[in-house]
Design a protein that fits this description.
The protein is built from 1 helix and 10 strands. The chain is mainly beta. It has a single domain, classed as Beta Barrel (Porin).
Length: 164
């Protein structure tokens, strides 16, 4: 019994130390682009077994950053699922962008909107760029984005950063 108690104390101290240590790596963010996405008429499927399903058509727009620039193609959509109390929404936007030099890049952006205590809206876009393009680097990193609200633009503005 004494050995079990001593072993438990040693395990507890090592777990406490691991949890209390500051990570040796700090993440940095590098700005990649600003997307100005134009949107169509919102429609809802209503209440489903999983919550309230809303679809927001993506009708176009533009994007620009230090290493790329172009247009957002019409035909995508933002698919949202809200809890019945409206306090949490998961989203998945799927669309295509086209760079000014003619490359098509598939975008799948997943995120959450929370209205519980403080409003929170963050997402993590994933890019699928041609391997033989100058944008293949988009395939090899994690990205995060946050909205920027503007009364002058009728749509949504998203700022995207690469996690370094």
């Amino acid at each position: 019994m004494k050995h079990v108690i001593i072993l438990s104390l040693i395990l507890l101290m090592s777990v406490t130390k691991v949890c209390a240590d500051t990570p040796s790596t700090t993440l940095e963010l590098e700005f990649v682009m600003k997307l100005r996405v134009t949107l169509g008429s919102v429609f809802t499927l209503g209440e489903t077994p999983k919550g309230r399903r809303t679809v927001i058509p993506i009708t176009g727009g533009t994007f620009e950053g230090p290493l790329l620039k172009g247009t957002i193609l019409s035909g995508g959509a933002d698919y949202q699922m809200a809890t019945l109390d409206g306090k949490h929404t998961s989203l998945e936007a799927i669309y295509t962008i086209k760079t000014d030099d003619g490359y098509y890049i598939h975008v799948r952006n997943r995120g959450i909107i929370s209205n519980r205590q403080e409003p929170y809206f963050r997402a993590a876009p994933q890019f699928e760029a041609p391997e033989d393009s100058p944008y293949a680097w988009l395939n090899e990193a994690i990205f995060v984005c946050a909205p920027e609200f503007s009364e002058l633009f009728k749509g949504i503005v998203l700022n995207v950063w690469k996690v370094k």
